[in-house]
Amino acid sequence: MYLHLGHSTVITYDEIIGIFDLDATTVSKATRDYLSSAEKRGGVVNVSAYDLPKSFIVCNAGGGNKKVYISPISSSTLLKRMHTAL
Question: Residue 57: which domain range?
Fold first, then answer.
């Protein structure tokens, strides 16, 4: 199954490690540090374009690498889409 993250970006359910609310999780320094290090290594894909980012999705990119997608769609909406499709 596939999950649409916004702006023509689609990933498979098998890739997903976690879906997180951006506002709730970036309060933690550990989360901010993780996102910062992912951006430095080039592992962040911003699919928000001109929209306000609402969530981030951590995915397995193969070979032990992780990719982080920044999405304009809320984490609750993404989870509802997943559960509706199942």
Answer: 2-85
How far is Cα of residue 25 from the mean position of the Cα atoms in its chain? 12
Q: Where are the alpha helices (DSSP H) in the chain?
A: 22-25, 29-40, 75-85
Q: Look at residue 7 in the predicted model and tell me its pLDDT.
A: 87
Low-confidence ranges of the chain (pLDDT < 70): 85-86
Compute the distance between CA of residue 35 and CA of residue 15 in angstroms, rounded to an integer: 18
Q: Answer whether 0.90 is exceeded by the pTM.
A: yes
19: left (phi over 0), alpha (psi -120 to 50) or beta: beta
Q: What is residue 86's predicted lDDT score, i.e. its pLDDT?
A: 65
Split into its structural domains, the chain has a count of: 1
CB 53 within 8 A of CB 26: no
